[in-house]
Amino acid sequence: MKHAISTIGLLGLFLLACPGSFADNQTAVGPAMRAAQSWLELVDEGHYRRSYKDSSSYFQSRIDEQKWLATVGPVRKPLGAVISGKLKNAQYTTNLPGAPDGQYVVIQFDTSFKNKKSAIETVTAMLDKDGKWRVSGYFIK
User: Does 14 have pLDDT greater than 70?
Assistant: First the structure.
């Protein structure tokens, strides 16, 4: 994967995030970004079934596996391989529109694909019920 830092989920969880405390932000962003990057690598490599299995319980409760597979491939495949990705921002929040309260990090990348020179990938990671950071949202614009 060619993203500069980390990423990732395809639910519409990404409007304006309200920042949490500075301490929460500092301890959450790194692990959230590592989880997001690992997940995004699966998507980049076309391992969509595995990306679903590695997503958050909230993600899985909002979209079933077959719908994810039917949705992500037609959106992602035409873009081609990732050429480069640069972190645009990462923001910690405890609430997002339409999502339960929790701990989230909304991460945006300026990404260049083989067939689309400029895109913004938004990946939302959340602290899951088991205490691990997992992707709960993914959006490409």
Answer: no
CA neighbours closer than 13 Å in the CB half-sphere of residue 138: 29
Q: Helical H runs in 1-134?
A: 22-44, 48-53, 57-62, 65-76
**Dihedrals phi, psi of 60, to nearest 5 degrees:** -65, -25
Q: Number of helices (H) and strands (E), helices first, in the chain?
A: 4, 4
Q: What is the 3-state secondary structure (H, E, C) of 93-109?
A: ECCCCCCCCCCEEEEEE
Residues 6+ apart with CB under 8 A from 114: 79, 80, 81, 82, 83
Residues 117 and 31: their CA atoms lie apart, in Å, by 29
| Rg of the chain, C-alpha, whole Å | 14
Spacing of C-alpha 9 from chain mean position: 4
Task: Map residue 114 onto helix, strand or coil.
Answer: coil
| Cα gap 88→40, rounded to integer Å | 16
> How do residues 108-125 score in pLDDT, each as one tens digit?
999 999 999 999 999 999
Cβ 59 vs Cβ 136: under 8 Å: yes
